[in-house]
Write a structure and sequence with these properties.
Order of helices and strands: EHEHEHHEHEHHHH
Strand order of the largest sheet: 3-2-1-4-5
Helix content: 40-55%
Strand content: 5-15%
Number of strands: 5
Radius of gyration: 17 Å
Shape: globular
Structural class: alpha/beta
Oligomer: single chain
Length: 234
């Protein structure tokens, strides 16, 4: 049986990846991490979406120890989300080590399930400058997991080379554009759906949606081409 594990936050990107996985795999499992993030609501959103879309199992894992080490505006309520970069050139929303930990634990979960694929919604094209969203990082993690567990495991990144408009196009391709728009939580200020409209995550999301809605046919065609989905277009 073709199984996968989706690293799932309940946001736009991971929900789009989940929608695709449900079309491409026989059995889909999701894993969500509680790292004492700024908005616990995203965990509840993830639970609701996973249940509604019918994933085989949804594990919520407590990794709140990350909060003790990773100082970020997403792990500290007393640090405001800023539009400015820090002295190291990274946004204050960067959580050091987060994706290292998440992919390691998702890989272990996949091992136990007998799944050969872990899916994550990281993206290098239209991203916030996080080093752990780069393709080179994901490839290094995949190699480390293979060496460390002696288990053939692929890490798939369906959004890696898509911008936000193309991510909307992919959701639309799977009939989930309105669902993603209304039900997901991407906003750094914890507002479900279209969000606060002011934080960096909302600005990027809104800009991508506006662009997609203005040029749907062209963007969808390019997205399907990039994603290798042209052959299944009806």
């Amino acid at each position: 049986m073709n199984k996968c594990v989706v690293v799932f936050s309940g946001g736009q990107d991971s929900t789009t990846c989940l929608a695709q996985a449900l079309e491409q795999f026989d059995e889909v499992h999701a894993i969500t991490f509680d790292y004492d993030q700024r908005h616990k609501l995203e965990i509840e959103v993830a639970k609701e979406i996973a249940a509604e879309l019918g994933v085989k199992s949804h594990k919520v894992m407590d990794v709140t120890m990350l909060n003790e080490l990773a100082i970020s505006s997403l792990t500290r309520a007393d640090i405001e989300v800023s539009h400015e970069l820090q002295e190291n050139g990274l946004p204050d929303t960067f959580v050091p080590g987060r994706n290292i930990l998440f992919l390691t634990l998702a890989g272990i979960f996949a091992y136990q399930l007998g799944a050969k694929t872990v899916i994550t919604g990281v993206c290098e094209t239209d991203f916030s400058g996080y080093p752990d969203c780069r393709d080179s990082f994901v490839q290094a993690m995949a190699k480390a997991l293979l060496l460390g567990m002696d288990y053939e495991l692929e890490i798939k990144t369906p959004l890696m080379w898509l911008d936000k408009a193309e991510t909307w196009a992919l959701a639309d391709h799977y009939g989930k554009l309105q669902f993603v728009r209304e039900r997901t939580l991407t906003c750094y200020n914890g507002v479900i759906g279209d969000g606060c409209g002011e934080c960096p995550a909302c600005l990027l999301r809104h800009k991508g949606l506006k662009h997609y809605l203005e040029s749907k046919d062209d963007i969808k065609a390019e997205t399907l081409k990039k994603s290798g989905l042209e052959a299944v277009v009806s």
